[in-house]
Specification:
The structure is a single chain. Helix content is about 40%, strand content about 15%. The protein is α+β, with helices and mostly antiparallel strands. The protein has 2 domains: about 130 residues, no CATH class; about 60 residues, no CATH class. It has a 4-stranded antiparallel β-sheet with strand order 1-2-3-4, covered by helices on one side. The protein starts with 6 loop residues before the first helix and ends with a helix.
Length: about 210
């Protein structure tokens, strides 16, 4: 399904991001996305070349976003990290939000303006913040299957839904953890102190087995 932009959407995009161009077939938006925003007194002005695919996949309301230059790749190399550590999916798209939390971000339904400001700009801001300061600006949820586990720990999905979202090897990894295990996010810290929601979710799984 392709997200069709309204006249108001197009005018707003052209006004806020004049370097972004909408393709003639209306299937994607691409160009230089510049932003200027701050967090707790720390201000960042930066820009990234992005492509926003307006072809929405089933199970989500969010368009996929990709960085089209090597800027994030260079940040990853400089920090000796993996792309997943900066919340980049295997297909190179941004991990903006796991589907179970989309309703929290868009309580009144998806809008282009909220998507760019609250999802895309915020994501790029945290990348720039991490590049400059070496850590993310706010407490973050885990990504990938660990994000689903945190959602389960919060009671937003049940055990049956969680099992459908996990691969068998992921379940085995979770079941083999204990209080002394290192966090599955790769931080090197103890699981129970690094990502307590993950620790809580693992305990809930074991109680259900």
């Amino acid at each position: 399904m392709v997200k069709n932009l309204t006249k108001e959407d197009i005018e707003w995009i052209q006004s806020r991001y004049p370097e972004l161009k909408i393709s003639q077939d209306g299937k994607y938006i691409e160009g230089d996305l510049s932003f200027s925003r701050g967090y707790k007194g720390y201000h960042i002005s930066d820009s990234y070349i992005v492509r926003v695919s307006l072809s929405i996949e089933s199970g989500t309301i969010l368009p996929k976003v990709y960085e089209m230059s090597n800027k994030i790749v260079e940040i990853v190399k400089a920090k000796a990290k993996d792309m997943s550590d900066l919340h980049i999916n295997p297909d190179k798209s941004f991990c903006l939000c796991i589907p179970e939390r989309e309703e929290e971000l868009f309580e009144n339904g998806f809008t282009v303006k909220e998507f760019f400001i609250n999802s895309v700009e915020q994501f790029l801001f945290q990348i720039s913040y991490y590049d400059q300061r070496g850590y993310f600006p706010w407490g973050e949820y885990a990504h990938g299957y660990l994000g689903h586990l945190e959602t389960f720990a919060e009671g937003k999905i049940d055990i049956e839904q969680l099992i459908l979202l996990l691969e068998k090897y992921e379940i085995l990894m979770l079941m083999n953890t204990n209080r002394q295990s290192l966090c599955l996010c790769g931080s090197g810290k103890k699981l129970r102190s690094c990502h307590p929601l993950i620790f809580k979710g693992i305990n809930k799984i074991k109680q259900n087995c």
